[in-house]
Specification:
- The structure is a single chain.
- This protein has 334 residues and is an alpha+beta fold.
- The chain has helices spanning 6-26, 30-41, 46-51, 62-99, 117-131, 145-148, 180-189, 230-245, 285-290, 307-315, 328-331, and strands spanning 135-136, 142-143, 174-175, 194-203, 215-225, 250-257, 260-270, 273-283, 299-306.
- The protein folds into two domains: 6-99; 117-331, Bira Bifunctional Protein, Domain 2 (BirA Bifunctional Protein, domain 2).
- Helix 1 (6-26) runs parallel beside helix 4 (62-99).
- The longest helix has 38 residues, at 62-99.
- Belongs to the class-II aminoacyl-tRNA synthetase family. Phe-tRNA synthetase alpha subunit type 1 subfamily.
Length: 334
């Protein structure tokens, strides 16, 4: 193979520059331009290949070839930089055209969600009792006969234990018929003084109609300490009712519950008529003994109310079933 001359190397450098500039001008993406940089200016690129022939030149001609090579390198690098900027600008312009937003177009509205009317009523009730110093406590919905009946002073032949009134499970357990079960569980593991409010779902074998449901929501309160009286219970419930309904007349009527003695029903006067809203009483000594409290030292009071009942009064709803239909025409009114 004949030795390369100065003229051969100079021509090779000129050809390399011309080919490189042409390829750069046609490149349409940053990735292609990066590959061209490697092909022409990399360690194993075209420029390095040409410069390997410098070793065959006389020493006096080598600096001239090196100067020509540097000029070719500078022009190729400059062309690469300019083309990269052009390609990036074109890509940005294309993206802006595709993603352009017409700020004059009307926006799309999304109606925000809100709490169910039962949840709203429940939260109002809990907020009032928490403000009175009560702690929110919850418990299981599947219960045993002991917690649902025996510990609450229900006699073995009490009608509430009948199959037609309570949902019994195959294993002998049952769906709780009231949230009083949580009171027993809480007292078993805590010592007085205590004040709790217990929200939750309860289940009864009621025929579903405008005022009854097989499942409904209940809230109960329990307070136990030394020296509590029925007057304390009355003051608590009047404060609760008037916080919820305003300055309305309230009355207490004698009643009966297995787990309280004495017991009462509480009515309020609402829009010209008396409406029953909850039941209450002093905790029966037998219930206190069942959880290990000494009824000679401690007394307590309890009260229970239905959330559906309160919501129907507050919002003047005539049918309890409306709460469970998921009819947005009804629900969006609250």
């Amino acid at each position: 193979m004949a030795a390369q001359t100065f003229a051969d190397l100079a021509q090779a450098l000129q050809d390399l520059e011309n080919n490189g500039l042409a390829a750069i001008a046609e490149a349409a993406s940053p990735a292609v331009l990066e590959q061209l940089r490697v092909d022409y200016l990399g360690k194993k690129g075209g420029l390095s290949q040409v410069l390997r022939g410098m070793g065959q030149l006389p020493p006096a001609e080598r600096p001239q070839v090196g100067a020509l090579a540097n000029q070719v390198k500078d022009r190729l690098q400059e062309a690469l930089g300019q083309r990269v900027a052009q390609v990036q600008a074109q890509a940005l312009e294309t993206r802006l055209q595709v993603e352009t937003l017409d700020v004059t177009m009307p926006g799309l509205g999304h109606a925000p969600g809100h709490s169910h009317p039962l949840q709203q009523t429940l939260q109002r009730v809990l907020d009032i009792f928490v403000g009175l110093g009560y702690q929110v406590v919850q418990g299981p919905e599947v219960e045993t006969d002991y917690y649902n009946f025996a510990a609450l002073n229900f006699l073995p032949d009490h009608p509430a234990r009948d199959m037609q009134d309570t949902y019994y499970l195959p294993d002998g357990r049952l769906l709780r018929t009231h949230t009083s079960t949580v009171q027993i569980r809480y007292m078993e593991t805590h010592q007085p003084p205590l004040r709790i409010v217990v929200p939750g779902r309860v289940y009864r074998r009621d025929t579903v109609d405008a005022t009854h449901s097989a499942m409904f929501h209940q809230v109960e309160i329990l307070a136990v300490e030394r020296g509590l009286t029925f007057t304390d219970l009355q003051g608590t419930l009047v404060a609760f009712i008037q916080a919820l309904f305003g300055e309305v007349p309230v009355r207490f009527r004698a009643s009966y519950f297995p787990f309280t003695e004495p017991s009462a029903e509480v009515d309020l006067q609402w829009r010209g008529r008396w409406l029953e809203v909850l039941g209450c009483g002093l905790v029966d000594p037998n219930v206190l003994q069942a959880v290990g409290y000494d009824p000679e030292q401690y007394t307590g009071f309890a009260a229970g109310l239905g959330i559906e009942r309160l919501a129907m009064i507050c919002h003047e709803i005539d049918d309890i079933r409306r709460f469970y239909t998921s009819d947005l025409r009804f629900l969006t009114q609250f």
